[in-house]
Amino acid sequence: MDNEDEAKCPPSIKMVFSSNIVKCTLNVLHQVMFDIQTKNLELQRYGTSIADLHRIITSLLKKLNDRLEQKYFGQQTRILLNAMPEDVREKLISSFVKYLGSIIQYIHKYYDEHSLLAESVAIFGITEIDQIKFDQIEKFVAILNLEVDHDKLFEEIISLQNTYKEVNSYRQVDQNGPP
Description:
Structural class: mainly alpha
Radius of gyration: 25 Å
Mean pLDDT: 84
Shape: elongated
Low-confidence stretches: none
């Protein structure tokens, strides 16, 4: 802030936002909200499908849980916390832990009931079809309560994977030139 901006700021607001406790809290909010917004933008991308949902949500939960377990709220927050009296520092850390815990609970509350479906659909996000296993597809079929002929489904998957491998081998020959 330059001097002109500081002169315009009411002293009561300036006093509140100059507090190390507020700075520390705002830093934590910035760190956590940045993580959440990054994943939110991933979810909003044009090409995002339900197959990506499981990966995006679980990676967000992993990052938030890692922050929570390691009590890491960013380097600037650490510097500010270390400069505070221990009782204030412990209160702030406790409030940050509760905050992160409530975000994680919120995500679980809305995601867990759909996580089985998202997890089973996630196999279709695999780019190499030959990596998909039949039991993964059976699990997906069961979740959707589909009645299918499992023997025919198995045959179709094997046929599709073999065709995929053949096409890939032709692509490799084309890229490497004729033998």
